[in-house]
Amino acid sequence: MRYSGFEVIKEGIFGQKGWRPVWRNPDPKPAYDAIIIGGGGHGLSTAYYLAKEHGLTNIAVLEKGYIGGGNVGRNTTIVRANYFLPGNSEFYSHSLRLWEGLAQDLNYNVMHSQRGLINLFHSDGQRDAFARRGNAMINQGDDAILLDCDGVRRILPYLNFDNARFPIYGGLYHPRGGTARHDAVAWGYARAADQRGVDIIQNCEVTGIDIEGGQVIGVQTTRGAIRAGKVGIVVAGRSSQVAAMAGMRLPIESHVLQAFVTEGLKPCIDHVVSFGMGHFYISQSDKGGLVFGGDIDFYSSYAARGNLPMQEHVMEAAMTLMPMIGQAKVLRSWGGIMDMTPDGSPIIDKTDTDGLFIDCGWCYGGFKAVPGSGFSFAHLMATGHHHPPAAKFRLNRFRDGAGLMDEEGTGSQHNLH
Amino acid sequence: MRIICPNCGARDRREFYYQGDALTLRRPAPDAGPEAWDDYLHIRDNPAGLTRDLWCHEAGCGAWLVIERNTQTHAIDSVTLAEKVKR
Lengths: 417, 87
Hints:
The structure holds two protein chains of two kinds.
Chain A: H1 5-13, E1 34-37, H2 41-54, E2 59-62, E3 78-79, H3 89-100, H4 102-106, E4 117-121, H5 124-140, E5 145-148, H6 149-155, E6 170-174, E7 178-179, H7 182-195, E8 199-201, E9 206-212, E10 215-221, E11 224-227, E12 230-233, H8 239-244, E13 253-264, E14 272-275, E15 280-284, E16 289-300, H9 308-321, E17 330-340, E18 347-350, E19 356-360, H10 370-383, H11 397-400
Parallel strand pairs in A: 1-2, 1-12, 2-8, 4-14, 12-19
Antiparallel strand pairs in A: 3-7, 4-6, 5-6, 9-10, 10-11, 13-16, 13-17, 14-15, 15-16, 18-19
Helix pairs in contact in A: 2-7, 2-10, 3-10
Chain B: E1 2-5, E2 9-12, E3 17-21, H1 34-41, E4 50-56, E5 64-70, E6 76-81, H2 82-86
Antiparallel strand pairs in B: 1-2, 3-4, 4-5, 5-6
């Protein structure tokens, strides 16, 4: 069924009885042309673009849980293209352009809301760094406006501008930045991939990767063996475990990142705001909850729940930046498992095994990359060539030291990102 | 999370700095080659389960500690002074 205003009215008249499940629930076939391990945002978008851009429809997405149950349902929904370094900037620029046409492309309302993103700065040095970043964004073809303090005050009057420790000097405004509905992105891609013939197989955990003579020939799963000449690993926080099935060790350490949401409130925060001194960022969901988060907990973890020190830090930053938030009640917090690379930038590459590809290392920035990552990974899997916007996301950059993309400028070590 | 420092006793996690996998105690020779240095600097086993990490009690005695810990439950099995592990 194609969604349209007409369908909504028709179903309204006939008692909403015509809606059907939006993807099938097929049993795995014995063999496919390609298998995607991981039914998260990146895996589903990879499958969709393999089908749409490259005509590869005899493919399966294997998900050990359910669609939308991993990090794609556990993030803070921010979409932006404000990266600085070559390699990252063209990739996220491409991804943002895909976001802008995504709802039409998928025929699914992903609620992409370009409400504008403002990164605040609190010193002269930080202003200079943000001016330079803004110029890089404009050179890339994206948008950036450097706001002074009064400029920020007009847009975000509720901030504490005169904090003695972190006074607000201004902000870098990225009008095309914003948010999207995270579940809808997963569901939209799953539905659109399914419509093009992709088998989405849930509750199917991969337990082994079969390799013969240096060529991948298929996978072992909890629902039996499945053959395929091409296999893509897209499993975020579990990348090290799945790669180990193919005898690989990765430059990845998994960490927990926490996020928080308050009770639903009337609209008060119209943008995405990030606090330049406290690693804190916030937006308001369409349901009214204030969605916010901070940094990772800074020790390796697979617990999907965090510890109190970082929660305290995030709440302190929130109160420092916008004292009004003290009136809101936190409804819940959660943690996701982040596949952190040493330089904080992702990996989309071939492996030493023919036909085996890997897409991982998205750290805490994977949501905005969902369309771009899938598009570029599909390109690599289908053609064997790196897609130009993602051509620098190489696995060997760590071994060679060439092409490291240390976006935060903190160094390329595991405990710095 | 509380960590029992062999010198100071049980202290809050806030007092400790996380360095990463304890393999950093096994520094390769300067001429060991790019593979060995890549392994040392970047490549990680990244286990979902038992791990050995290097932490520093930076807001306490300053000692470097090897901590055996479960990454799925955050339970700590043992804490040893790194100088004893190293020797």
